[in-house]
Design a protein that fits this description.
Blueprint lengths: L1 H11 L9 H4 L21 H20 L2 H12 L5 H23 L24 H28 L6 H26 L2 E3 L26 E3 H7 L2 H9 L11 H18 L9 H22 L7 H17 L3 H11 L5 H18 L4 H9 L18 H4 L7 E2 L1 E3 H10 L4 E5 L13 E6 H9 L4 E4 H7 L12 H12 L1 H4 L12 H4 L4 H11 L5 E4 L2 E4 L5 E6 L10 E3 L4 H11 L4 E4 L5 E5 L1 H9 L3 H7 L16 H6 L3
Parallel strand pairs: 3-5, 11-12
Antiparallel strand pairs: 1-2, 4-10, 5-6, 7-10, 8-9, 12-13
Helix pairs in contact: 1-3, 3-4, 3-5, 4-5, 4-13, 6-10, 6-11, 6-12, 6-14, 7-8, 7-10, 8-10, 9-11, 10-11, 11-12, 12-14, 13-14
C-alpha cells in the first residue's frame, strides 16, 4: 500500500494539463505552449513539489493499510522523505485523514470518528507488572535478532540472485520460490498439524480450516480445525489479530509445536521471497513473523512460570512491533502505527520498549535498515545516511573531490558546448569569468553554475547568436542580444521551458538526456554545417601573372550567452573544509553538485553524492591522498601541516 500510494501520487503529478499529440510535437515550441505556471496551486514542474506530493501519497497509503493517520505521517517523515517541512506535514495529514475516513466507511458503511484499525483486537488485559519487563526485553531482543537476520540474509542472497536485466532468470527464480512456498504450506500442516476444537466464542467460523481434520469430532461432535493449516491459509491480518488476542485464561488457539514450525517455515519463505520479482511488500510478513515468534515465546514463558500473569498475545504484540523496528529501524512511526492500528493504547509502554530494544540489538548485528540496504545494493542511487560516516572525520573536501572539472566561460561557442555534452555525462558545469568580457581581469574565477538540461534547451530553441571575431578583437567584448538588449518575453519563455524541460523530455528516464544521442536529436546539423562551410572557405587561388591571392575567411561564429540563465550564487566550499561538513551540507540542502574553490575563487574540484559515497567506503586517508596527489592548494600546505586556526574553522 505504501508503494501504491506513492505511485498514485506520482501519477497525479503528471496528469494535469493537456498531453501533447504527435502532431504538436513536430514543432519545437509547441512542446511548451501548454504550460501555464499559475494555472495550478502546485508547481509540478518543480521536482521539489513533486517529491512532497509523493511523500503525502506514501503517508496516505500506509494510513489506508492500517487505519493509522498519524502513523502514516510519521512513517513518511522517517522512511519516505529526505526533506521535511510544515507544508509537507499538513498536506500529508490531510491525505491520511481522508484515507482513514474512507477506510472507515468501507468497513462500517458509514463515516465514523473511531479509528478503523485493521489489526484491532480484544481479549488482553491491560495489566502488566514490573517483573514482566525482563520477559518483554527477551522477546524484543529475539525479534530484533530476527529482523537483522532478515536484512543480512537478503544481502547475501542478493549477490547470487540473477540481475534484473535477465528477465527469464528472474521469472524462473520467482517460479521456484512459488513452488517452494506452496509445498511448505501444504505439506507441513498435513504431517505436523494438530486437530483442535473450534473456540466457542469465535465470531468468524470461516477463519478456521479443517484441512486433514474431520469437520466434527467423532465422539463430542464439536467442529475441529487444523491449527497449522489455519496459520497458513487464513487471511494474514486475521491471523495476526488472533495471535494478538491470546490471553492468559483463554484456551490456546495454536499449539507450541505449530507456532514453532510456523515461525521457522514462514521466516525461511519470507527470506527467499524477499527480493523476488513479484509485487509484494515486507511490512505484513514482518508483522506475521514477529507475532508468531512473540506468541511462541509467550507460550514458553507461560509454561516455565505457570503462576505469573503472562499473556502470549501481549508478547505477540511486542514481537510484531520489535521485528518491524529490527527490519526497518523506524522508531516513533512504528509505535504510533501499532497503537493506532491495533487500538492498543493501553500497551504503549511495552510497545515503546520493544522498539528501543530491537533497534539497539539489530543495529549491532546489521547497521542499515531494509530500505537503506536495498539502495546500497542496487548501486544506482547513492543514498546519504542521516549522520556522516566516521571515515570522513579525518578528511577534507580536497581529499574527496573529483579533479577533472569541465566548465564553460560566460559566453561560449556552440561547438564547444556540443563537444563537451557529447564527451561527458556530467549534469552540471561551473561557469568561469571570461577574459574576453573583462579586459582588466585575467579571468578564470567562478561566476555561476549551469545545468545540462538548461544547455540542451538553449540549443533546442536556437537561443544562440552570431558574433564577428574581428569585432571582438577590436572591442574586446562580445555583442550578445540577451545580455546587452534583453528580450524579456523570450527570456520568460525560456525560463518556463527550463522548469518544464524534464516534463517533456524523457520524464521517467532522465538519464537519457546524458547520452550523446541527445545531442543528435537536437537536429543542429543544418545550422552548424552552414557555418562550417562559411568558415572553411579558403585556399581559392587566382593566378594573374606572378601574383596570387586567397579569398578572405569568414569570421562569423555561433555563441551561447550563459549569463541570463546560470545560477549566479552557487554554493561552494574551500578545499580545507571538513568532509563531514560537506556531507552535512549535501544531506541538509539536497545538493547534487558542490564546487571546491581556492583563495581566488577558481574551481579546483567538484564534489557529488557519488564522491561522498566512494569516500565513505575507502578505509584510510592515504587512499584519498593518492588519488588527489596531483593537486595542491595555493597555500602549498598538506592536511597534516594545517594550522590550529585552519583546523578549527574546518570542523563540522
Amino acid at each position: 500500500m505504501v508503494h501504491i500510494g506513492a505511485a498514485v501520487a506520482s501519477t497525479l503529478t503528471w496528469m494535469h494539463g493537456e498531453f501533447p499529440s504527435q502532431k504538436k510535437l513536430d514543432s519545437k515550441k509547441s512542446r511548451f505552449s501548454k504550460f501555464h505556471p499559475r494555472a495550478w496551486p502546485f508547481d509540478f514542474h518543480n521536482d521539489k513539489d513533486r517529491r512532497e506530493f509523493v511523500s503525502a501519497g506514501t503517508a496516505a497509503g500506509l494510513a489506508a493499510a492500517f487505519g493509522s493517520p498519524i502513523g502514516g505521517v510519521l512513517y513518511s517523515l522517517e522512511e519516505a522523505s529526505s526533506f521535511w517541512s510544515r507544508k509537507v506535514m499538513w498536506r500529508s495529514l490531510v491525505c491520511t485523514t481522508v484515507a482513514t475516513m474512507l477506510l472507515s466507511w468501507l468497513h462500517e458503511k458509514e463515516f465514523s470518528f473511531a479509528l478503523p484499525g485493521s489489526l484491532a483486537f480484544h481479549g488482553l488485559q491491560p495489566v502488566f507488572h514490573l517483573q514482566d519487563l525482563p520477559l518483554f526485553a527477551l522477546t524484543s531482543a529475539a525479534a530484533g535478532i530476527l529482523g537483522a537476520l532478515i536484512n543480512t540474509s537478503h544481502g547475501w542472497l542478493a549477490r547470487i540472485r540473477p540481475p534484473s536485466t535477465h528477465a527469464i532468470s528472474k521469472i524462473v527464480e520467482a517460479c521456484c520460490v512459488t513452488f517452494i512456498s506452496v509445498a511448505v504450506i501444504f505439506i507441513l500442516p498435513y504431517f505436523f498439524g494438530e486437530c483442535l476444537p473450534v473456540p466457542e466464542m469465535s465470531s468468524d467460523e470461516k477463519f478456521w480450516f479443517a484441512y486433514t481434520c474431520p469437520e466434527h469430532h467423532p465422539v463430542s461432535g464439536v467442529s475441529q480445525y487444523n491449527d497449522l493449516a489455519t496459520l497458513y491459509f487464513s487471511v494474514p491480518h486475521e491471523t495476526i489479530k488472533n495471535l494478538l488476542q491470546l490471553g492468559q485464561d483463554a484456551d490456546p488457539f495454536f499449539t507450541v509445536k505449530s507456532l514453532g514450525i510456523h515461525t521457522v517455515s514462514f521466516l525461511t519463505v519470507f527470506i527467499l521471497a524477499y527480493g523476488v520479482a513479484t509485487p509484494g511488500g515486507i511490512f505484513m510478513p514482518s508483522m506475521m513473523v514477529g507475532a508468531s515468534v512473540g506468541a511462541l515465546l509467550g507460550c514458553i514463558f507461560q509454561s516455565i512460570f505457570p503462576g505469573a500473569n503472562i499473556q502470549p498475545g501481549l508478547h505477540a504484540l511486542i514481537g510484531a512491533t520489535a521485528l518491524l523496528g529490527g527490519v526497518f529501524r523506524s522508531t516513533i512511526s512504528v509505535v504510533v502505527i501499532m497503537v493506532e492500528g491495533t487500538g492498543g493504547i493501553d500497551f504503549i509502554l511495552p510497545i515503546i520498549m520493544a522498539v528501543v530494544v530491537s533497534n539497539w540489538v539489530a543495529h549491532h548485528i546489521h547497521q542499515h535498515g531494509a530500505y537503506e540496504a536495498d539502495l546500497e545494493q542496487s548501486g544506482n542511487v547513492h543514498f546519504l545516511q542521516s549522520e556522516p560516516p566516521r571515515e570522513l572525520a579525518v578528511l577534507t573536501a580536497f581529499d574527496i573531490m573529483s579533479l577533472k572539472v569541465v566548465g564553460f566561460e560566460e559566453v561560449v561557442p556552440v561547438r564547444e558546448v556540443l563537444n563537451v555534452l557529447r564527451s561527458t555525462r556530467h549534469n552540471g558545469f561551473p561557469v568561469f569569468k571570461s577574459a574576453n568580457l573583462n579586459p582588466n581581469d585575467s579571468g578564470g574565477q567562478m561566476v555561476g553554475f549551469i545545468l545540462r538540461h538548461q544547455l540542451l534547451l538553449l540549443l533546442e530553441q536556437h537561443a544562440f547568436f552570431k558574433a564577428n571575431l574581428s569585432s571582438k578583437k577590436d572591442s574586446g567584448n562580445w555583442s550578445s542580444p540577451f545580455f546587452g538588449n534583453i528580450n524579456m518575453k523570450q527570456l520568460k519563455f525560456l525560463e518556463d521551458a527550463m522548469r518544464a524541460y524534464h516534463f517533456c523530455h524523457h520524464p521517467h528516464r532522465r538519464d537519457l538526456t546524458s547520452r550523446p544521442e541527445a545531442i543528435d536529436e537536437l537536429d543542429l546539423g543544418n545550422i552548424l554545417g552552414l557555418h562550417t562551410s562559411i568558415e572553411s572557405t579558403c585556399g581559392v587561388t587566382e593566378e594573374s601573372g606572378s601574383k596570387s591571392h586567397t579569398t578572405e575567411i569568414s569570421t562569423e561564429t555561433l555563441l551561447l550567452d550563459l549569463r541570463p540563465f546560470m545560477n549566479r550564487a552557487p554554493l561552494t566550499v574551500r578545499g580545507e573544509c571538513s568532509a563531514q561538513r560537506v556531507y552535512v551540507i549535501f544531506r541538509t540542502l539536497g545538493l547534487r553538485h558542490l564546487c571546491v574553490t581556492d583563495l581566488n575563487s577558481r574551481v579546483v574540484g567538484m564534489i557529488t553524492r557519488k564522491d561522498l559515497s566512494f569516500a565513505s567506503k575507502k578505509s584510510t586517508i592515504h587512499e584519498h591522498r593518492q588519488n588527489n596527489s596531483l593537486l595542491q592548494l595555493e597555500s602549498d600546505s598538506t592536511i597534516d601541516e594545517r594550522t590550529a586556526r585552519d583546523i578549527l574553522y574546518s570542523l563540522p
